[in-house]
Specification:
The complex is a heterodimer of chains A (318) and B (328).
Chain A (H helix, E strand, L loop, with lengths): L4 E12 L2 E13 L4 E5 L6 H8 L7 E10 L2 E2 L5 H10 L1 E4 L3 H4 L6 H12 L5 H15 L15 H13 L5 E5 L7 H18 L2 E6 L2 H7 L2 E6 L2 E7 H6 L4 H9 L48 E3 L2 E3 L6
Parallel strand pairs in A: 3-8, 3-9, 6-7, 7-8
Antiparallel strand pairs in A: 1-2, 1-4, 4-5, 9-10, 10-12, 11-12
Helix pairs in contact in A: 4-5, 6-7
Chain B lengths: L4 E11 L4 H6 L5 E12 L4 E5 L6 H8 L7 E6 L2 E2 L5 H10 E4 L3 H4 L6 H11 L5 H14 L5 H5 L8 H13 L5 E5 L7 H18 L2 E6 L2 H7 L2 E6 L2 E7 H6 L4 H9 L39 H5 L5 E4 L2 E3 L7
Parallel strand pairs in B: 3-8, 3-9, 6-7, 7-8
Antiparallel strand pairs in B: 1-2, 1-4, 4-5, 9-10, 10-12, 11-12
The chains are: A alpha/beta (318), B alpha/beta (328).
Amino acid sequence: MPPLLNVQELVVQYSTLRGEVKAVNDVSFSLETAATLGLVGESACGKSTLGFSILRIVPPPGRTVAGRIELQGVNLLNLPLEEMRRIRGSQVSMIFQDPMTSLNPLMRIRDHFIELFRTHDPSIKKEDALGRTAKLFDSLGIAGDRIEDYPHQFSGGMRQRVMIGLALALEPKLVIADEPTTSLDVIVEAQVLELLKLLKEKHRLTLVLITHNIGIVAEMTDRVAVMYAGQIVEIGPTGDMFGDPLHPYTKGLLESAPNVLHPEQSMRPIPGNPPDLVSPPTGCKFHPRCPKVFKPCPLREPLPISQGSRLVACHLYD
Amino acid sequence: MSSLVEVSGLTKYFPVQKSSLEAMLSRKKEFVRAVDTISFTIERREIFGLVGESGSGKTTTGRLLLRLIEPTSGEIRFHGDNIGELSPQSLRQFRRRAQMIFQDPTAALSPRMRIGPAIKHGLDIHQVGSAPERKKETLGMLERVGLAPPEAFYDKYPHQLSGGQRQRVVIGRAMILKPEFAVADEPVAMVDVSIRAQILDLMLSLKNELGLTYAFITHDLATANYFCNTIAIMYLGKIVEIGPRKDVFKSPRHPYTVALMSSIPIPDPRHKVERLIPRGEIPSPISPPPGCRFHPRCPYAQAVCSDREPQLEEIEPNHQVACFFPCT
C-alpha cells in the first residue's frame, strides 16, 4: 500500500523585492496512515510554508514551483481548483495557530460549522448540520449551550477547541496542525494536546504537527523532521532522534530546548542566527553555525543519506 | 543591610470601562483586581522570578516595581525609600538606577530611530559625560551586547536586524546607564528557542559585571528554573507560593504550582508521567472566587477553601505557601 502522504522534491518560492526566497527547498518525505510527524525548526525555516503547500494555500507571493504532493497516490498539485476545494476539509485539513484571526468575529460559532457542512454538501438540512455540530461539541469538551456564542465570548483555549472541531468536522484523513497551542497558557496547552491525542486515536488520524516546542514533539509524535533553511536536514523515528541525534543541528536544537526537570542540561544556545534565505550560505546552509564544520561543508551541499532508521543530510556521514 | 526591594500589601485595581448605558443602569463600579495585596522582598544581586499564566498579574507587578503605574494601595521600598513618595530629583535618580527590558523588541524600539542613538538616548537624557564620550560608551555597549563591529551597527535601523539582535539592542539600552535593578518582562518570549539561551546568558554576564538585581517575569517555568534564584508563583493577582528556586521546583507545595509543573511538555520521549491537569481556565479577575482563588479548579479543595483565604505561611526555611492543604 502506498503511504498516505508522499511529498517529493517540493520547492516553494516567495518572490520578494530582494530576490527569490526558497522557503521550501527540495523537500521529500512520506507518512503512513495514523502516524504523527513533528515538523520542527526555528522561525522562518519553512515549516509553516510546507504545511500550507500541502493544502495549496501558500499565501502570495509564495508559489509551489516544483515537486509532487501525493495523497493516497493522487498528486494534489495537478488537481483542478474545484476538486482541491472539495478535498480541503474532507481529506486534508488544517488547524491554524491563531484562533482569533481564524474565526469570523461576526459569525456565531455554530454558523462556522453550518457553513462548513453546507459548502461540502449543499443538500444537507440545517437541523442535520446543527445536530452534527452538537455532537462535535460534545467530543470537544465544550458545553452544548455555547453553540450560539460568538468567538469573542470564548477563551483562547475554547477557541482552539473550536478550530480543532472545524478541522475534524468532515473526518479528514490528514490533519496539519500549525503551532496549535503556541498562543495558549501551559495548562490550557496541556488540555488541548490531551484532546488532540484523544481525537487522533479515536479517528485514526494522520497528523503533521508543526511546532518549535521540542517538548510537544517528544510527547505527541512518532516521527520527526528537522527543518533548517527550507530543507529537511534529518528525519526519523522520534525515539531514535532524541536518543542519538545525528545532524549537528538536530543535536543543537534538542540541547537548546528548555527542560524543567534538568535545567542544567538544557538551554544550550546554538551560536549565530538563522540565515538570510535571499542569500543563503553556500554548501551546507548550517555550516556557519556548525560546531563540526570541516572542509567540504562550505563547498558542497550534503545530500540526504540513509543511516539506519533515518535520513540525514550532513557531510559527517558521507 | 536591608533588601534592595521591599514590597508590602501591593494592590492594583483597574476600573472596568463600561458603556454609558451600562454605567447608568448599574451604580456599582467594577474593577479588575490585577494585583491583590502581595508582599515580597528582592535581595541584592538575586534574580527574582515572577511566574504565572496570562492574567496572573505578573506584568502589572513588574510595572508597579518601576513606578510606571501607580498602585491602588501598598508600598514599594527601594533601598528603604518608598518609591511612591520620592521627590522629583530622587525619582529621576531612581529612573536611572532601575530599568526595564521589554518583551517585544519590535514594539519597544522606534522604527525610525537608528539603534546607536536609541541606546545612547538614556545617556543624553541624564547628560552623562560629553557628546563624544557618550558615543564611545554606546559603541562599547553595542560590542558588549554582541553587536559587532559596533560602528557598522550604530547606524542601522531596527528592521535591518533579526529578532534576537533587536532584543540585544533593548538590553543594551536598559544597561547603558549601569542600573542596579532591572525588570525584565518576558525578555525571551519572542525569540527562537535556539537563540533564547544566548540572550539569557548575555543577561547573566551583564548581571555579574554590573552587580545587577533582576526581577524576571515569565510564563515559562523551564526558563525560570534555568535563570532565577527565587521563584514567586502568581495566580489571579496573588502570590500562591514563593521560595528558593530549588525548593519550589524540587518540592512544589501549592496544588497550582504542581499543576503548572506537570503541564509542561518534557523534551524526552522516554519521560512518561501521570499528569495533574486542572479542569477549566483562569476565572475572571473582576470577580475572583472567594476564599482561595484556585479552589474551583483544585483537586484537593475542601469547604474551608471557599470560606477563608489562605495566607502565605513558611513551610520550610524561606519557602512559603498559601494553601490549607499543601502537597507533600
